[in-house]
Amino acid sequence: MSGIQLRRARPDDADFLLELITDEDTRPFLGGHAGETRDDVVGEIGRSDREPDAFGWFVIEVDGGRAGCIAFHRANERNRIAEAGRFAIHPSFRGRRIGTEAARMFQRHLLVDLDFHRVELQIYGFNERAIAHAERCGYVREGVKRKAYLKHGEWQDAVVFSLLQEELPDE
Fold this sequence. Notes:
The chain has 171 residues and is an alpha+beta fold. Helix content is 27%, strand content 37%. The longest helix has 16 residues, at 98-113. The two termini are 14 Å apart.
């Protein structure tokens, strides 16, 4: 699919991002790092600008319109490990494989442009759609962190995935 672009979030994206990450169909699947107020979102957008090699929140655009978001933070500087997350596609864009192409663009940005060696993901064990998406995008399932996170009042498993720089497909 053409017309998909990734760009760092800007202050004028704050309302879109807040709506997306607090949407009742999205929020249950996101980890605890997603902001809950407009001030949280604006603060994280600022951090993305101030620390571009250590943290980033990106907007996924389709033909110039906002379609979703994805983020990363540097999990280990010495070993060049990034952890990706906060991946969400707006309901009006779901089911069109936009997420797959955007995720692959994001992988390339982290592993090539920012020179990370490894990208890691942790997905709640109940989030079957996200697990299938990670596998479709080339991430390798490494295992399960059993009852690692308290979510919805219960301990939840996290399925751990990674992608190494040398596993990134050629363009």
